[in-house]
């Protein structure tokens, strides 16, 4: 039931990126994503977690400061980002989410992700690119 909405959102993002001169580092990625989602009569959900509160990070990771942001729309996972503060994390998550819209189409699929040490099923927005690595762990309970 989510696919028709994300097809409309895909078109809205495509038009917005064309009018902004294309995908690039100087865009306000969150603002583009937010305005497109709102034009489709929905809202984004951003969940923030301090990096130090996330279990299961690689043991060699020395960076413990900062925040992680997970962005969803209609409970569908769009992207995750890390930053020194919530604003930077949200910007990175938005950039990752917009990357999915760069392909020829987007698809909502049920995928397996880790959440607090166990595998859960999660609705994710994906492009047609094959994934060589796993997905980042969920930081909010998917359903």
From TrEMBL:
Natural source organism: Tetraodon nigroviridis (Spotted green pufferfish)
Domain of life: Eukaryota
Primary localization: nucleus
Name of this protein: (spotted green pufferfish) hypothetical protein
Sections of the chain in a coiled coil: none
CC per GO annotation: nucleolus; nucleoplasm
Keywords (A to Z) from UniProt: Nucleus
Domain CARF/NKRF DSRM: 2-125
One Pfam family in the UniProt entry: DSRM_CARF
Location in or out of the cell: Nucleus
């Amino acid at each position: 039931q989510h696919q028709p909405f994300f097809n409309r959102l895909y078109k809205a993002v495509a038009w917005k990126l064309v009018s902004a001169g294309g995908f690039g580092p100087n865009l306000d990625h969150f603002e583009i994503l937010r305005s497109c989602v709102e034009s489709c009569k929905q809202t984004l959900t951003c969940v923030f977690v301090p990096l130090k509160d996330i279990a299961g990070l690689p043991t060699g990771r020395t960076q413990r400061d900062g925040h992680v942001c997970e962005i969803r729309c209609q409970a569908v996972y769009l992207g995750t980002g890390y930053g020194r503060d919530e604003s930077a994390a949200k910007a990175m998550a938005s950039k990752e989410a917009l990357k999915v819209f760069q392909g020829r189409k987007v698809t909502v699929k049920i995928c397996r992700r880790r959440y607090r040490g166990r595998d859960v099923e999660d609705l994710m927005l994906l492009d047609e690119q094959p994934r060589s690595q796993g997905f980042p762990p969920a930081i909010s309970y998917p359903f």
